[in-house]
Amino acid sequence: MISDQGEPTTSLYDAIRMRRDVRAEFTGEPVAEQVLQRVLSAAHAAPSVGMTQPWDFILVRSPETLQRFAAHVADKRREFAATLPPERADTFDPIKVEGVCESGLGIVVTHDQTRGGAHVLGRHTVSDTGLFSTVLAVQNLWLAATAEGLGVGWVSFYDEEVLTELVGIPAQVRPIAWLCVGHVDKLQEVPDLERLGWRHRRPLADAIHYERFDG
User: Fold this and answer.
1) Average pLDDT over residues 19-25
2) pTM metric for this prediction
3) Which of 7, 86, 164, 180 is deepest in the core (most CB within 10 A)?
4) Domains, in order of start, for the chain
């Protein structure tokens, strides 16, 4: 739902329940600038270790760049498919792994481990807390986009070096995600990998432990 001010009123729990990794449902309709700014503001409001905010967002709309990245992803998909045993290859065959061109907008989320300097409060013993912070920004972006009625697809079939060169990322910065973002004609009720038989959802009870992992 949309409020009188034009902002979504979808509850947090609804957004979590509705969120999907979108591949085939993008319509190609451009995302309004005010909507995109709300989504990016939500991402930028994520918690970060030592208040470093180690993320940046590269907005990619150039058809040429989208096509080049989609071609690279297709190559990586074929490489992965070639490693699968026949029965898994058959299951994987109908699974679409990206909507790069169909979405019309790629958001490359990057991580800069040097941001904040050498003495980052909270990162002294667990260096990955910086990376965790950037992933939290991705989660915020994803849930905000879902609340706005948009779809998001996280593309992970790529070589980091290729993406770094493609969008001009500096040497000390790492690309963490290419997110396809755009309007969709629907969001699937069941996640694609579950719906197409790749893997089934793990029950919550199996993930809960008390006092000790082996307890």
Assistant:
1) 95
2) 0.91
3) 180
4) 12-186 (3.40.109.10)
